[in-house]
Amino acid sequence: MLTLSGKAALVTGGSRGIGRAICVLFARLGARVVVNYHRDKAAALETVAAVEAIGGEAHAIPADVSQPSEAGHLVAEAEARLGGLDILVVNHGIWKRASIDAMTAEQWEETVRVNLGGAYGVCHHAARVMIPRRSGVIITIASTSGQRGEAHYSHYSATKGALLSFTKSLAAELAPHGIRVNGVAPGWVLTDMTRDALTGPEAAAAVRPIPLGRPGTPQEIAGPVAFLASDLASYLIGEILSVNGGAVLVG
Q1: Residue 233 contacts by C-beta under 8 Å, 6 or more apart in sequence?
Q2: What residues does each domain of the chain span?
Q3: How far is CA 239 from the centre of its chain?
Q4: Is 156 a catalytic residue?
Q5: HSE-CB for 13 with a 13 A CA cutoff
Q6: CA 183, 188, 193: angle at the middle one, nearest 5?
Q7: pLDDT tens profile 184-238
Q8: How far is CA 188 from the centre of its chain?
Q9: Which of 199, 175, 184, 162 lies closest to 239 in space, CA to CA?
């Protein structure tokens, strides 16, 4: 049976979209959850309310995880609020169009700082909590963009490709300490971040390569994440689950 009963989980970027779906499902499965957000407090409180509506426990904690000190404060505060930290889901990220000929150094650096630097920050501090306890689960949320590349989003693809290697490296490094590290690589998922692309003039081109003929939902990503967080995945280390409706078939 898939259960997270008694577990304490931190989800970065947990206020909306995939992050919110993960928080709600984790709570439904018995976990206590910290909903991390950067700027949108109202959305974070809506996620907390959604968790509480099903009888769960959730706490909204703001932090810009691209700043190592704030990532450290977030992990410490999450541990204090929850009485421990069993699961970290690295879900935050930005996705902003920029063709390489027009992309500024600032745009490149922002994406690298948030998507990759933020992953380093929270994983660094979470590992310092989990290693002495010889237990824990870390799940990264990458993207099919990091597996196949994506025109006009080379900076995003670069960070997600790096996150895949980061995940596998941490898996090998932390497994001897009893910490399982795996990742999920979603394809097109209908969220606030992708809504324009999936409902505008480019929607047909985006959906055409998906054998299922539609984008995914946040809940369809949350399910595989919950599986990886559970004891059902106890022998799974360094795996990347590609959840994309068949659009990118990689093994």
Answers
A1: 180, 182, 227
A2: 8-242
A3: 15
A4: yes
A5: 22
A6: 95
A7: 999 989 888 888 888 877 778 888 888 998 999 999 999 999 999 999 999 999 9
A8: 15
A9: 184
- Which token pair is 12? 């970065």
Neighbours of 105 (CB within 10 A): 7
| Annotated active-site residue in 37, 120, 156, 235 | 156
Taking alpha carbons only, the member of 30, 42, 41, 78 closest to residue 230 is 30
Position of tokens 């984790």? Answer: 26
- CA-nearest of 123, 42, 50, 48 to 87 is 123
Handedness of CA 59, 63, 68, 73 (dihedral sign): negative
Between CA 157 and CA 120 the distance in angstroms is: 17
What is 8-242's CATH number?
3.40.50.720
Among 130, 134, 133, 110, residue whose Cα is nearest residue 122: 130
Mean pLDDT across the stretch 21-42? 97
Residue with tokens 């959850």: 33
**Measured on CA atoms in the order 112, 117, 123, 166, is the torsion positive or negative?**
positive
Kindly report the pTM of this predicted structure.
0.95
**DSSP at 244:** S
Amino acid at 129: V
Q: Per 3-state DSSP, what percentage of the chain is helix, strand, and coil (rounded to 5)?
A: 50, 15, 35
Look at the block and give the residue holding tokens 């998507």. 115
Residue type present at position 64:
D
Whether the CB-CB separation of 111 and 92 falls below 8 Å is answered with no
- Report helix, strand or coil for 195: helix
Structure tokens given for 18? 């995939």
